[in-house]
């Protein structure tokens, strides 16, 4: 399955590597190789790094902590300090290195550097004013979180091409079934 990057924030994109959280969960990171592919697809690294089962456990821990922290920010719930600690542990590792070479920009590092970059993005998001713009897709069974940066803050779906289109098509069918 391909990765989807429609959340408007790198950390929310990691959190949304689990789809349909309240029904038939779809995990897009079932193996270390998938995690390595995600780091490239997300634009964090230029080449898939070696990834281990321990790296995957750390990624899943960070992913779930970011999801819960973002959901708490969205709903006004009190965040769990253990989630904040997990995020801060991941952010403490040196992030991805970015260098300018003869052929453009190069992104280097290992999986933990990529996770550190994601954790730092999450800290910036969740500790800043953009946290107020976190929404959850209204299309069932999607549970993807995204930043609503629309002019009137009235965005309802994570992505108009997928969830929005399906919801509008279903509403059209419902109106015309008589």
TrEMBL record:
Signal peptide: none annotated. Residues 134-176 form the Zinc finger CGNR domain. It comes from the Bacteria. InterPro entries: ABATE, ABATE_dom_sf, Znf_CGNR. Pfam families: ABATE (PF07336), zf-CGNR (PF11706). PANTHER family: BLL6575 PROTEIN. This is ABATE domain-containing protein.
